[in-house]
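User: Before I run my own analysis I want an independent prediction to cross-check against. Here's the chain; please return only the structure tokens and, at the end, one sentence I can use as a sanity check.
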Amino acid sequence: MVLEDVNLRVDGSESLSIVGPSGSGKSTLLNILGGLDTPTAGTVRLGQIEPFTLKEKELARYRNEHVGFVFQE
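Assistant: Structure tokens:
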């Protein structure tokens, strides 16, 4: 399991960086937060929304309105 016992809270006025060695789960965490990968266990809550309880079209709308990625390359 790549991510285990992860609890993360970021308030709206905060920013953060996710750093770590290769294979530590950074991309997995970001993909789960972005709704691109589905967690195998646990709960994801972003604000008052649990994205993985949404239907496919609702999840797509959620991503469109609330999630953004800046790729390295």
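Sanity check: Residues 36 and 72 are 17 Å apart (CA to CA).
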